[in-house]
Amino acid sequence: VQFVESGGGLVQAGGSLRLSCKASGFTFSRAAMTWYRQAPGKERELVASISRLGDLTDFPDSVKGRFTISRDNAERTMYLLMNNLKPEDTAVYYCNQLGGSSWGQGTQVTVSS
């Protein structure tokens, strides 16, 4: 199982980024998927989840209305579109299967005020 996250970077508050997650080593289309983030000194936090077919999504209140999750099962890729970014969104972002234990390197998102 392998995940390669990309698309992070430095952005000003109010800006947008789109993260990508390329998955391999398992049947992607059969797995519900998630995005997590971890800020320095904090625990890893779930920020988005999506069902196998992409018809159901869920977000915590901290990002609801600003983040959108989507997936392309044919490309084995998942996306996280982040709008109206805030400094508190600064973290390393990771993707994973729902309940999975193998983590990729993540992609750094830094939001300046």
Roughly what percent helix? under 10%
Number of helices: 0
Looking at the structure, what is the overall shape?
globular
Query: What's the end-to-end separation, in Å?
Result: 36 Å
Q: The biggest beta sheet, please?
A: 6 strands, mixed
What value does the average pLDDT take?
97
Percentage beta strand = over 45%
Number of strands: 10
Your description of this structure?
With about 110 residues, this protein is mainly β. Helix content is about 0%, strand content about 50%. The protein is built from no helices and ten strands. It has strands at about 1-5, 10, 15-25, 35-40, 45-50, 55-60, 65-70, 75-80, 90-95, 105-110. The chain has a six-stranded mixed sheet, with no helix packed on it. A four-stranded antiparallel sheet has the order 1-3-8-7, with no helix packed on it. A hairpin with a 6-residue loop joins strand 5 (about 45-50) and strand 6 (about 55-60). The radius of gyration is 13 Å and the shape is globular. The model has no long low-confidence stretch (mean pLDDT about 95).
